[in-house]
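Let's practice the habit of predicting before peeking. Look at the sequence and jot down your guess about where helices and strands might fall. Then scroll down.
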Amino acid sequence: MRELAVQAANGTNTDSDRGEIQKEIEQLKSEIDRISTDTEFNTKKLLDGSIGNSADVGGNNTANILSAKIVDDNLVAGDYKVTVSSSSVAATVDAGDTNVGTTAAIVPDSGLAMGTYTLEVVANESNWDLTLKNADGEVIATAFNKPIASSGAVEVEVGALKFTWADGKAPAEGTATISIAADLTVSIANQDGDKIGATTVSGNDTGKVSVGGFELNFNSDLSDSTVDNDTTITVKTDAVAFQIGANENQNTKLAINNMSSEALGIKDIDLKTAESASKAITTIDEAIQDVSAERAKLGAIQNRLEHTINNLGTSSENLSAAEARIRDVDMAKEMMEFTKNNILTQAAQAMLAQANQTPQGVLQLLH
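Done guessing? Here is the structure:
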């Protein structure tokens, strides 16, 4: 599929060529789904997700998590809490022509999300009108008719931000760009409220964050997450347990994730245009990584079971050898007892024979 995507991204292909390539892609997706549905062992489906673990993001998705994947099969079923908290927040300013200071203060508890904002400075006779907009161009705060002189430092609050014009810096019309970023801590707690993992990331980070046995895929970047609120992830475990010991709970678990085209994220790939084909290459690469991860996990489990079998075989041999030694010791003891008793019997017989000979000697002397 990746080879076909690379071919379709080539500008020398016509729309008709890409249409034919798309037909082959559809056949390959159907075959992937067939393998996912039909592969089984002892009537148990192996690749359709029925023996896998699943993690569902709850409706209160304030952390803006697109999806969650379990990477630790030892996680137990239940609800887990994901919290995104800020450790430090800073607002940096590209002043442009406005002469505003290069940093801005954030009003405490203002709830201002991380991201990029613009400050428009417009002259209003002898005063100034200030308008703060978000990245979508929506007005989120205004400060009209503000006197900003060139002498003396002036601080002006516009919504959740405080801007400063330094002494001798006369304001000018223009647009300043403000970037608000923070170091964020993503932590996960289990059903008992115990923290099982935490990691620190930049608010501008995008994509996946691995923490607490989960791989969290955030929508866009973490700057869209609402800090200090919980998002619930519900874990369901349907892993197969292998009994590898003679006692209770001596087992190991195997979970195989859903390997269908939809689960791998390739169900809707489209190669009908060069642009979509180029994007499909990345999508297919991610699917290949997921498949490779499952193969690696299965290989690791297989190696573990082989080592377990070898270990149990060694234990069995040691047990048999110990039993043989015990039997050998018992036989030696019995032979020793037999020899002792035999010697005692022979000695008694000799003494008795000697005792019987004494009267015979006396009688012979009397005759």
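How did you do? The chain has a mean pLDDT of 83.
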